[in-house]
Design brief:
Blueprint (H helix, E strand, L loop, with lengths): L4 E4 L3 H12 L4 E4 L4 H5 L6 E2 L1 H9 L4 H6 L1 E3 L2 E5 L2 E5 L1 H5 L3 E3 L2 H14 L3 E3 L2 E7 L7 E6 L2 E6 L2 E4 L17 E16 L9 E4 L5 E7 L2 E8 L10 H11 L2 H6 L5 E15 L2 E2 L2 E3 L5 E2 L7 H22 L3 H28 L7 H16 L1 H12 L4
Helix pairs in contact: 1-6, 1-9, 9-10, 11-12
This protein binds flavin-adenine dinucleotide and 3,4-dihydroxybenzoic acid.
The site of flavin-adenine dinucleotide (FAD) has 32 residues, from helix 1, strand 9 and helix 9.
Length: 389
């Protein structure tokens, strides 16, 4: 088999890259380890920056998002009993779109199907070869048969546990990591969201987040110790704990119901540099992980694809390598800004097991400063709604 760009991973970053390249006449093959149903069963991100919204439209995959997604011009931050609204529309004239990653992925698959793109599912043993040469190759198996794909470039869009990042020699890679001493327990339920906008709540019992997918589908999260297992959390225990962490007037309005999904995700910050080595480009979670607090994971994957697709289109259309040569530096500059925002929001809102009274006063002062200062809110809103590409 032969293609121009081999794409490892059929999550949001791989599918969006494939879609944008195909629309510019560049041939791709997407290799995905799991079945399509499995990829679509993952419940992950829910908030899209406006740049992400525009990228999905540009890819021809935005119609259902525009019809069914919810435009939000603000969100709430709460601390113990107090709650205030950050009005990013009034502060900056900007909004975010609430539309789940599952739906984004479904729309990208539909758009890829419509243009006859090649996506191979349930491939195993993917290995990258000759990345430092002009003729890289990807070997893999499917249904027990061995295959080889030759290409000009490889896009590593295969998430944090994929094969692409470790294909860069260890002596070239510089990895930065911070692991947080807690996780998030997430619950999806067919209940009306407790408020029309998201609530990020700090509390002595731990952080809580009220989010949603649509008017009859809620997504809630609570901070839990890393030692907890999903089986430790009955629905009743979850709802009681969530209510205990929300301001009383919000808790009183919370409609509970059976969970339809429940999972625990650890929190981590991770970046690898550089994001390009020879013919290989890393994108999305393959290169970086943010704690979910700032809702940046999916949005960063999309901004990586913005830079890479632009560079590859420039290369194939004009023979100009400037964009692909600048990819790693351009993507990393934006990634570190989002890393900092996600780290600072995580630090301000969570209860750390080893924190002192002093540390907790610092968190209170951070939140009080944000509540008091319009200038601070503008900076926060600029980061939350998404920095420019
Ligand atoms: P992925 O979505 O991970 O896609 C990578 C794809 O590559 C997968 O389909 C995988 O099956 C495939 N793959 C892996 N290895 C191989 C291989 N060897 N060969 C072939 N294919 C391979 N972000 C938020 O903003 N908010 C959230 O609430 C949130 N919750 C999350 C919860 C969890 C449990 C996780 C893991 C992530 C969460 N994120 C969240 C982050 C967000 O979902 C990711 O940033 C986003 O999915 C990144 O997209 P991606 O395409 O780069 O990677
Ligand atoms: C969701 C997840 C987040 O991490 C976040 O900051 C906002 C929303 C969600 O799943 O809806």
């Amino acid at each position: 088999m032969k293609t121009q760009v081999a794409i490892i991973g059929g999550g949001p970053s791989g599918l969006l890259l494939s879609q944008l390249l195909n629309r510019s006449g560049i041939a791709t093959v997407v290799l995905e380890r799991k079945s399509r149903d499995y990829v679509l069963s993952r419940i992950r991100a829910g908030v899209l920056e406006w740049g992400t919204v525009e990228m999905l439209r540009e890819a021809g995959a935005g119609a259902r998002m525009d019809a069914e997604g919810a435009v939000h011009g603000g969100c709430y931050l709460a601390s113990e009993g107090a709650m205030f609204r950050l009005d990013f529309n009034a502060l900056l004239g900007r909004n975010v779109m609430v539309y789940g990653q599952t739906e984004v992925t479904k729309d990208l698959y539909a758009a890829q199907d419509a243009i006859g793109a090649t996506i191979l599912h349930e491939v195993d043993d993917v290995a990258l070869h000759d990345l430092a040469t002009a003729t890289p190759r990807v070997s893999f198996t499917q249904n027990g048969q061995s295959h080889e794909l030759t290409c000009d470039f490889v896009a590593g869009c295969d998430g944090f546990h994929g094969v692409s990042r470790p294909s860069i020699p260890a002596e070239v890679r510089h990895e930065f990591e911070k692991v947080y001493p807690f996780g998030w327990l997430g619950v999806l339920s067919r209940t009306p969201p407790v408020r029309h906008e998201l609530i990020y709540a700090a509390h002595a019992r731990g952080f809580a987040l009220c989010s949603m997918r649509n008017p009859m589908l809620s997504r809630y999260y609570i901070q839990v110790p890393l030692t907890d297992r999903v089986e430790d959390w009955s629905d009743a225990r979850f709802w009681d704990e969530l209510k205990a962490r929300l301001p009383a007037e919000v808790a009183a309005d919370l409609v509970t119901g059976p969970s339809i999904e429940k999972s625990i995700a650890p929190l981590r910050s991770f970046v690898t540099e550089p994001m390009r080595w020879g013919a290989l480009f890393l994108c999305g979670d393959a290169a970086h992980i943010v704690p979910p607090t700032g809702a940046k994971g999916l949005n960063l994957a999309v901004s990586d694809i913005h830079y890479l697709s632009e560079g590859l289109i420039q290369f194939y259309a004009q023979g100009d390598p400037a964009g692909i040569d600048a990819y790693s530096e351009r993507a990393l500059a934006r990634i570190w800004q989002a890393m900092r925002f996600s780290w600072s929001l995580t630090t301000m809102m969570h209860r750390f097991p080893d924190s002192s009274d002093y540390d907790r006063r610092m968190q209170d002062a951070d939140l009080a400063g944000l509540m008091r200062s319009e200038a601070a809110q503008r900076v926060w809103a600029e980061n939350y709604t998404g920095l420019p590409y």
